[in-house]
Amino acid sequence: MTAVAGSTARTSPRTGDRYRTRVSDTPDLVERIEPTVWGSESSAGMFGAQELAAHARDGFVQVPGLLDPQEVAGYQAELDRLATDAGLRADDRCVVEKSSNEVRSIFEVHRISDAIARIARDERVVGRARQILGSDVYIHQSRINYKPGFGGGGFYWHSDFETWHAEDGMPVPRAVSCSISLTDNHPYNGCLMIMPGSQRTFVSCVGETPEENFRSSLKEQEIGTPDNDSITAMANRHGIAMMTGKAGGATFFDSNCMHGSGDNITPYSRSNIFLVFNSVENACTEPYYAPTRRPEYIGARDVTPVR
Ligand code: 6CS
Ligand code: FE
Predict the structure, then answer these.
(1) CB-based neighbours (< 5 A) of ligand 2, an ion
(2) Which of 96, 148, 162, 251 has the fewest CB atoms within 10 Å around its CB?
(3) 231 by DSSP, 3-state: which?
(4) Has domain 29-282 been given CATH number 2.60.120.620?
(5) Domain spans of the chain?
């Protein structure tokens, strides 16, 4: 990569960083040293000890019926309202599908929608995130994904932490995502797939981060996706679990899980609210392996704890 004046282009590993990525022409599997559950597995909160143990083992835990049917209907109406808001469609925070002009995602949605701000600070959601991370938490990123029917695009295999470390400066994998389904998730309509236990291995990627990578990566990620041999090794070691379930259910998953989802060619959209909680003790610094920071609507810099 040619260093751009004033950029912090990184073509060499940051001193002392265990999770080096996008700086070598050979991939690597690095053992994670941080825990998956930071709080004690008997910590007070809505997760029981068995659920926390499952999360520690698999890197994810499903919560069926987190929202009741009335709440699901309310949030579906809110998603429809946001997707048809002409002003928002022109906003950088709105990402449309590569193959169509359909809305793919809307970022920073907890700041745009009061209804989504409410669920983000609801104890059913943030209380569980604090239990997993063992500290106060702030929102690193929020988005709604529409994955419309008849061709809504998937998300290739990746680790979110690999991107948040390289491009947002997230020091260690002490963040957890909560995906709240607003439609039924079936094996056939692009449900989230996670390799159970994959959060314990950091898969480094080949290929340096180009300037303003987010302008293409949020439509279809290329840089920061693992090589085929690494994906094969991880799938053979961990298997692949499909996060199916009724609308209203939620999946909490570790920032470093290897996950992805397929295209949705069915008539049934697969919409979710996606909230990323980072520990206030893991605030993002400068990108580890990218020339410049991403916009704050993608990687927040406000570390005010969610109350
Ligand atoms: O780049 C990001 O931050 C986003 N990209 C993906 C594919 N998942 C995590 C996150 O929303
Ligand atoms: Fe992701």
Answers:
(1) 160
(2) 96
(3) helix
(4) yes
(5) 29-282
